[in-house]
From TrEMBL:
A Pfam family: Tyrosinase
Annotated InterPro entries: Di-copper_centre_dom_sf, DUF7868, Tyrosinase/Hemocyanin, Tyrosinase_Cu-bd
UniProt-listed SUPFAM superfamilies: Di-copper centre-containing domain (SSF48056)
Protein name as catalogued: Polyphenol oxidase, chloroplastic
An example Gene Ontology molecular-function term: metal ion binding
Keyword Repeat recorded: no
PROSITE patterns with a match to the protein in the record: TYROSINASE_1, TYROSINASE_2
Protein keywords: Copper, Metal-binding, Oxidoreductase
Tree of life domain: Bacteria
Keyword 4Fe-4S on entry: no
Naturally occurring in which organism (per UniProt): Pseudomonas wadenswilerensis
EC number(s) stated in the UniProt entry for this protein: 1.10.3.1
């Protein structure tokens, strides 16, 4: 694994050598029993595992022995979402996976192999949203079934359908973590091991969650996602986006020892090539440059929305994250339940704080007070694996959301909702948290005379996987004011 990771679009069409070798290795690993720590299923189960679901999906046989290290959370169900460990955990997961596949490729063909990335937001490539041919081909060049197209996705999918909100906007955020972790690029603070908990960071929310939902099928369910070979190319791109972000001046990475050395209550662990060889434990700092789980990319500019080495000017810098404040300036009064129809909810705002936010959000001169506004959706719960929710602000009662793009705040793919809502899970069903930046929207509404500092109306519009039979609930919706000093 000496080479850098490359853009899959640059490897050549169809069955290029990298993807053919990936298919051959995947096939071989998929034939190994789940108890082998190098098997395809073991690797997938590390992300998410649910014995009954896996039996229903005919991935494992009913009554067949299941290795304890998958059910006791040592290796199994280890993936970190909705927390500041999301990026570091997945980086090590990619590293371990790549090493195991590369070892298999070496054994089968003698070739070196590195995991490629799927650069779906490369605006210079008209084919960027297409899954590489090798992932949709029915057969291998020799006519045998194609292992890269073995597990279910959206029926007939050839490309992900660009939806509103699917963007690199997360890359504009300057801070990995702000305040107590409710806001920022990288996810909310958690000291201990939790699989799905707390607040998702901006990069996790979009494009990460969005792509999981757009590919659909196993990719749309955290308990199955790691089994789809495209999962790894998707996460490789997310990892590259993080690396590009960290290398861009003006971005502040977290340096909290709790993150660097975490989690506090147990170690993360990854398998190594060679079945049932002892695994390697690690902390977040092992995934940073110089660490044992660090890998490099051929390019950090194309399709990343930033230019490493060049100071980012996309968004005004609000000063050191530790000096910024995040303060709720209003919340709705009751739990909101969303079924098959849009639901509106009312938020009373502290008028002085809201007016002050509006007055300072456009500040650009160094030393001046500056604010941003966010909607915070707390403890979202439901049983579907990746429901879609559109959010609008100040949509008049009865108005058709589809005809009101000027009130659109954002879309959320609630990836992992099923896992985060399991009351028998290790997180006791605390649900998921999300924030949506409404700074620009609030400014536009104010310019149009439609922003009242006394209150805000939020409308939640159900997309796929949200029905009267399978509703979702949002415990609380609040408005957060983030304040800082332009620097
Ligand atoms: Cu993922």
């Amino acid at each position: 694994m000496s080479t850098s990771r490359q853009d899959v679009a640059k490897l050549g069409p169809g069955w290029n050598k990298v993807l053919l070798n990936y298919a051959l290795a995947m096939q071989a690993l998929d034939e190994q029993p789940i108890a082998d720590r190098n098997s395809w299923k073991f690797l997938g189960a590390m992300h998410g595992f649910h014995p009954q679901l896996w039996i229903n999906e005919r991935l494992i046989k009913s009554g067949a022995p299941i290795p304890a290290d998958l059910t006791n959370h040592t290796y199994g169900n280890q993936c970190q979402h909705g927390s500041w460990y999301f990026l570091s955990w997945h980086r090590a997961y990619l590293f371990a996976f790549e090493a195991i596949v590369a070892a298999k490729v070496k054994e089968l063909t003698g070739d070196d192999w590195a995991l490629p990335y799927w650069n779906y937001l490369d605006s210079s490539n008209p084919q960027a949203l297409y899954l590489p041919d090798a992932f949709v081909a029915k057969t291998l060049p020799d006519g045998k079934p194609n292992p890269l197209n073995k597990y279910p996705r959206r029926p007939g999918i050839k490309a992900i359908k660009p939806v509103r909100g699917f963007s690199l906007e997360a890359m504009d955020e300057n801070d990995f973590i702000v305040g107590n972790g409710t806001l920022g690029f990288g996810g909310g603070i958690t000291g201990n091991f939790v699989q799905f908990d707390g607040v998702a960071g901006e990069l996790e929310t979009n494009p990460h969650n969005t792509v999981h939902g757009l590919v659909g099928g196993y990719m749309g369910n955290a308990l199955l996602a790691g089994l789809d070979p495209i999962f790894w190319l998707h996460h490789c791109n997310i990892d590259r986006l993080w690396e590009a972000w960290m290398n861009t001046p003006g971005k502040t990475m977290v340096r909290d020892p709790l993150w660097l050395n975490g989690p506090a209550d147990r170690s993360f662990i990854m398998p190594v090539p060679g079945d049932n060889a002892p695994g390697v434990t690690f902390t977040s700092k092992d995934t940073l440059k110089g660490g044992k789980f660090y890998r490099t990319y051929d390019d950090l500019i194309i399709g990343t929305g930033v230019t490493p080495g060049v100071h980012a000017v996309a968004r005004v810098n609000m000063g050191s994250p530790s000096k910024q404040t995040v303060q709720p300036i209003g919340a709705n009064a009751a739990v909101v339940k969303i079924g098959g129809a849009p639901v509106g909810t009312h938020i009373d705002l502290e008028p002085t704080a809201a007016a002050n936010s509006m007055a300072t959000m456009g500040a650009t001169s160094p030393g001046k007070e500056v604010a941003r506004l966010y909607l915070s959706l707390e403890s979202v719960r439901g049983s579907a694996p990746s429901p879609l929710l559109d959010v609008y602000v100040n949509l008049p009662e009865g108005a058709d959301p589809a005809l009101s793009p000027d009130r659109y705040a954002g879309s959320l793919t609630l990836f992992g909702l099923n896992v985060a809502s399991q009351t028998d899970g290790p997180h006791a069903g605390s649900g998921l948290g999300y924030t949506i930046d409404i700074t620009d929207l609030a400014q536009r509404l104010a310019d149009a005379g439609d922003f009242d500092p006394n209150h805000l109306r939020v409308t939640l519009v159900p997309g796929e996987q949200i029905t009267d039979e399978e509703p979702i609930t949002v415990e609380r919706i609040s408005v957060l004011k983030r304040s800082g000093i332009v620097s």
